[in-house]
Amino acid sequence: MATGGKSLWDSAVDEPKRASRRGEDSVDLKKVYSQMKDTYADIKKEVGKVIVGQEDVLEQLMIAIFTDNHALLEGFPGLGKTMMVRTLASIMDLKFRRIQCTPDLMPSDVTGTYIVEEDASGRKKFRFEEGPVFTNILLADEINRATPKSQSSLLESMQERQVTMGNTTHKLDRPFFVLATQNPLEMEGTYPLPEAQVDRFLLKIMVDYPNIQEEDKIVELYSGEFTPLVNKLMKREHVLAIQDLTKKMPISGEVREYALRIVAATRPKGKNAAAQFLDYGASPRASIGLVLASKARALLQGRNYVAKEDIKATAFPVLRHRIILNFESERKGMSSDDVITQILKEV
After folding, report:
1. pLDDT of residue 276
2. Cα separation, 276 vs 269, whole angstroms
3. Is 31 in contact with 12 (CB distance < 8 Å)?
4. What are phi and psi of 154, to 5 degrees?
5. Which residues, other chains included, contact 262 with Cβ-Cβ below 8 Å and sequence gap of 6+?
6. For residues 117 and 158, is the Cβ–Cβ distance under 8 A?
7. Residue 21 has what pLDDT?
8. Torsions phi, psi for 232 (to 5 deg)
9. How many CA atoms lie within 13 A of 218 on its CB side?
10. How far is Cα 99 from Cα 150, in angstroms, rounded to an integer?
11. Which residues contact 93 (CB under 8 A, 6 or more apart)?
């Protein structure tokens, strides 16, 4: 990506203004397609200054952002989940706020509240004080530690991108993402997310331990004298342009049908062998999410079409939190990913 003068990204964002005046299409697809693969490589390089490894996690976070959706990150403490989200916000020059979820967190601590102010004449009036949800990237750290009442305060902002207080609705800035983390270790004093709220997250991203070589680099990086810094590569307008392009990504009827058959195979009444391990399957929201995520992955790969490999790669993060396993799966020691693997073999 060009560092001096005006890059193709800048011209791709400026082009809609000129095209709108000419009555033409609002996005220059060719310029953005041509830059996308190099842009993603630049982002990986910048993130690599701070985070060692975790390339699959980075790709899935980018997919959530470019599809204008939310993501749930699950992993053990100390694996860099919070740092990766903060780093991405810095690279994309987006407003970032973090909520540390605890049992005493109140809904008003998330959305904001009305406060009473007194003007110069002594008259009192209410003023709305915005909460941390009024940002571009909201990190809800350890979301399962917040009570259901506080968790539900995020639902309207996640779905409608707005906050309603009393009789007034406050719109959120675009883009807006909730990237939440949860710790699978400590279950005492936690409140598992209800299925309706889990389904609002496009992806459930599993963050695993680094290998020994990666951990050696991490220790060297953070036990040294210098703190790594990242450069800004994008602006808010760039992210919005890519979101628009993701929706325009072509997908053939055959590949879309392949995605639908995978989702249908998660439903217990199906005839496939994996159905015996499931109590509940994925809804049509999963079908939409699988197609959208595949479009974003194809864009990141620098292609202008969706392939079956994109469907297969995104099936795990899209479906793993949307299927509910039964006793038979527990008896055989099968995880959600094991069942999805079997479905992909069958479909």
Report:
1. 80
2. 9
3. yes
4. -90, -15
5. 290, 311, 315, 319, 343, 344, 347
6. no
7. 39
8. -80, 125
9. 15
10. 11
11. 232, 234, 235, 236
pTM for the whole structure:
0.84
Helix or strand (DSSP H, E) at 331: helix 327-331
Tokens of 346: 């069958």
**Residue 141 vs residues 12, 179, 229, 334: alpha-carbon distances, Å:** 35, 8, 23, 28
Q: Beta strands 168-171 and 137-141: pairing type?
A: unpaired
pLDDT at 290: 94
Mean pLDDT by 10 residues, the chain (347 residues): 43 46 48 78 88 88 92 86 88 90 87 81 80 89 86 84 84 89 73 81 90 88 79 84 87 92 84 78 89 92 88 93 84 85 88
Query: Read out DSSP for 219-234?
Result: HHHHSSS---------
Q: Under a CB-based contact definition with an 8 Å cutoff, are residues 50 and 39 in contact?
A: no
Residue 190 amino acid letter: T
Q: What is the pLDDT of residues 90-117, one digit of tens each?
A: 888 889 999 998 888 888 888 888 888 8
d(CA 34, CA 48): 23
Domains of the chain are 50-229 (3.40.50.300), 250-347 (1.10.8.80)
Q: What is the DSSP string of 290-318?
A: HHHHHHHHHHHTT-SS--HHHHHHHHHHH
